[in-house]
Write a structure and sequence with these properties.
It is a single chain. This protein has helices at 2-20, 25-28, and strands at 36-43, 46-54, 60-68, 74-80, 83-89, 94-102, 108-112. By secondary structure, the chain is of the alpha+beta class. It has a single domain (31-112), classed as Immunoglobulin-like (Sandwich), CATH 2.60.40. The longest helix is centred in the N-terminal third of the chain and has 19 residues, at 2-20.
Length: 115
């Protein structure tokens, strides 16, 4: 009798999770679901936005570094998994840098306000 009670409780717990919409980490990061962690802050007279976003594959992540400076030519760089991309822009324009690698790699970003 105890085994039947345990089985019923397991089924009820699973049903409750389905009804309440509880998602696992794998479900939350399902392919096609864009997750972004990009932060913008004012630095050295400009605005720097940097962070990560979902990649083009379920196993990849984009590394993003964008910088805006109103009066100087400037650059931004995104480095991850052996890839390094630098964007350069004139004053008053955004520089864009984005690279992509597997989720195990670390995203490194930087900017230069006086390129």
């Amino acid at each position: 009798m105890q085994r039947t009670t345990r089985n019923v409780l397991v089924v009820l717990a699973a049903a409750t999770m389905l009804v309440t919409g509880t998602a696992t980490t794998a479900q939350a990061a399902a392919p096609g679901f864009v997750q972004e962690s990009v932060v913008c802050k004012d630095v050295d007279g400009g605005t720097w936005c940097q962070g990560t976003a979902s990649g083009s594959n379920w196993w990849s992540t984009k590394c993003i570094s964008n910088y805006y400076h109103p009066t100087n030519r400037h650059s931004s760089t995104a480095i991850m998994g052996g890839g390094s991309i630098r964007g350069v822009a004139e004053a008053g324009q955004w520089s864009y840098a984005e690279t992509e690698a597997g989720t195990a790699h670390t995203c490194y970003t930087k900017y230069n306000p006086n390129f």
